[in-house]
Each structure stands twice: as C-alpha cells, then as structure tokens.
Amino acid sequence: MIHLQLFLAFFKIGIFAIGGAYSFLPLTEREIVEKYHWLSKSEFLDISGLVKIFPGAISVKYATYVGFKMAGYLGVAIANFANLLAPATFIMIASIFYNHTKAVAPVKSAFNMIQLVIFAMIIAVAFQTVAIKQLASLTSMLIVVSAFSLFMFTRIEPAVIIILAGCIGATLRFQ
User: Fold this and answer.
1) Engineered SS bond to 82: which of 10, 33, 37, 44, CB 3.0-4.6 Å?
2) Residues 91, 96: Cα–Cα separation, whole Å
3) d(CA 75, CA 83)
4) Centroid of chain to Cα 2
C-alpha cells in the first residue's frame, strides 16, 4: 500500500510542480505532511533546509528522503520515478509544440505571462522561508543584499555562496 501511496503522492507533485524550484513546496507539504503524515511539520521544515544544501532538483531530494524513510530503496525508486514521469512526458510534448509555435504571438505572450506569475510565486515562497522579524536587523539586510549581489553580479557559484554563508553563520553563531 505504501508503494502505491508514494507513487500517487509524488506523481501528483510532479504533475503540479509548475514553475519548478520552490513553487511546488506548498503542494509537497500538503501531500507528505497533512495528507499522508509521512513527515511532521517540523521535520518538513528541517528537510527544507537540508535539501537546499545538496545539488539537484528539490523535488527529487524530497522524493528520495521520503521514499527512503517510508519504504527503503524501493521507495526511493518509486517516489522518484513518479515524481519525474509527468514532467519528462510533458517536456517532450511541449518541446515539439514549442519548436513549431515559438514565434506565434499568443504563445510568446502566454510564456511571458507565466514567467511573471512564477516570479511572484518564488518571491512569496522566499518570504515564507524566513520570519519577517529576521529581516528587521541591519545585519540580516546586509547578508541578504550581499548574497543577492554576489549571486546577481559575480560568477561565484551559488553553492559556494551558500557554503560560505553556512561557515560564517556557524563561526559567528548568527541568530
């Protein structure tokens, strides 16, 4: 039964993970915390921090963690297959469609609108990942602006910025 539940939950996440990155986190939380109770809210938040450290798609890391926790290696395989099945199928179909219609004005307009909506969702998720009071200090704002600037205006790898921040935070015991 758990194998079918893993497949259905991560297939649903894979289908509705539109926009990638963080846009699917509310759905993921609903499925694995609220519906199936595979993780507690606290564990989900801990794993949210953990999955940001490692390379690769966040949904794959959630599928791997939850799949392994619930059903071992077979659970990992099932959850990841289900998670990737819909997006892989959709992108194959979309690539055919896009290559034939990318110059058509309504198609270009639709993609431009979708980009703006995804941008808004990513900003919303960003605000959900930190407590607003965390941003109230000058030090916090300096960290945010510095990380943003390093990411936007240098060629420093994002992973290096994250690792450096973690090292500085551990050294300074930043709260």
Assistant:
1) 10
2) 9
3) 12
4) 24
CA quadruple 67, 70, 73, 75: dihedral, nearest 10: -50
Q: Using the predicted structure, report yes or no on whether residue 23 has a pLDDT greater than 80.
A: no
Domain assignments of the chain as residue spans, ordered by start = 2-102
Specify whether the CB–CB gap between 83 and 14 falls below 8 A.
yes
Q: What is the pLDDT of residues 124-168, one digit of tens each?
A: 878 877 878 888 888 888 999 999 999 999 999 988 898 898 888
Lookup: tokens for 149: 């600037």
Residue linked to tokens 């791997």: 64
Count the neighbouring beta carbons within 10 Å of the beta carbon of residue 129: 13
- The pair of structure tokens assigned to 129 is 């990942």
Contact at 8 Å (CB) between 6 and 81? no
pLDDT tens, position by position, 79-96: 999 999 988 998 899 899
3-state helix, strand, coil in the chain (%, to 5): 80, 0, 20
Closest-CA residue to 8 (of 82, 71, 58, 67): 82
Q: How many CB atoms lie within 10 A of CB 165?
A: 15
